[in-house]
Design a protein that fits this description.
This protein has five helices and ten strands. Strand 8 and strand 9 form a beta hairpin. It is an alpha+beta fold. Helix 3 packs across helix 4 and helix 3 runs parallel beside helix 5.
């Protein structure tokens, strides 16, 4: 009988062409699958809660795999962390019910986009920010982001080639926060996200912050359902998948309690 295991994974997306396997390019999925396959001496497929683009990071991506094995979950975690390259860490491995599915069972996700808003770019961890030199009007960005909360058609923020049956999504939180010292974070919690949706939202909200678009016009962009009306796609390096929820619990807005072990502005608690 096959056993189903759930993985909680942190990774730096900089050296990878995203999560999903790509021809002749390194990906997170391929790297983990190859390690698991060596452990159990047979091919293993790892299915994640969703794809992340090239250069996008994850603090708590969730994935599952099935295999015939007598290896306990804690041994999988320990061995994987010894075999995987720096930049990929398995924070948990659990045996779960065979009905668990990392993608189809996900109820809510949180993404955080990080911006450094100051004249000079950071040198350390430069691949985890979008550097914007001109001052951002954070108050205007907050007004615009408030229009996102609720159930809407997000077609205006959809990337081409999005695999979906509908462009309607429910966003339970769209939060802009100024942490000081130039750090601004954009956090989105929702039932699901279209391809490039978070990066397109970030790019358009930055247009609001730079006074290229008003908060009222931002609402018009959302209502238009036309991608051409929205702003640019924000670069990938500022984006983090922070949490995936599998329980239907009420949404609770996050509290800003930064950890010294993780990039500032990321909160790992419940969505």
């Amino acid at each position: 009988m096959e056993t189903t295991f759930k993985l909680t994974i942190e990774y730096c997306g900089t050296p990878y062409a995203g999560w999903q396997i790509q021809p002749d390019q390194p990906t997170v999925q391929q790297t983990i699958q190859e390690a698991l396959s060596r452990m159990v001496t047979r091919p293993v497929t790892v299915i994640a809660s969703g794809r992340t683009d090239a250069g996008v990071h994850a603090v708590a991506q969730v994935a599952h795999f099935k295999t015939k094995t007598a290896i306990p979950a804690e041994k999988f975690q320990d061995a994987l962390n010894r075999m995987l390259p720096p930049g990929i860490t398995i924070h948990a491995c659990q045996k779960v019910a065979d009905t668990f599915h990392a993608r189809f069972g996900a109820r809510r996700k949180r993404y955080t986009y990080r911006i450094i808003n100051r004249p000079e770019a950071p040198a350390v961890a430069h691949d985890t920010f979008w550097h914007i030199r001109n001052p951002l009007d954070v108050a205007a960005m907050k007004k615009a982001a408030a229009h996102l909360v609720g159930t809407h058609d997000f077609k205006a923020f959809e990337g081409a080639g999005s695999p979906r049956a509908t462009t309607v999504r429910t966003v339970s939180e769209a939060c802009i926060h100024d942490h000081g010292q130039g750090l601004v974070t954009l956090t989105f919690c929702g039932s699901g996200f279209l391809k490039f949706m978070v990066r397109n939202l970030a790019g358009t909200l930055v247009d609001v912050g730079l006074s290229r678009t008003s908060p009222e016009a931002f609402k018009g962009i959302l209502d238009s359902c036309k991608r051409k009306n929205a702003g640019p796609t924000a670069p990938p390096q500022g984006l983090f998948l922070v949490r995936v929820e599998y329980e239907d619990v009420p949404h609770a807005p996050r509290q800003f309690t930064d950890s010294p072990l993780y990039p500032a502005g990321l909160w790992l608690g419940p969505c």
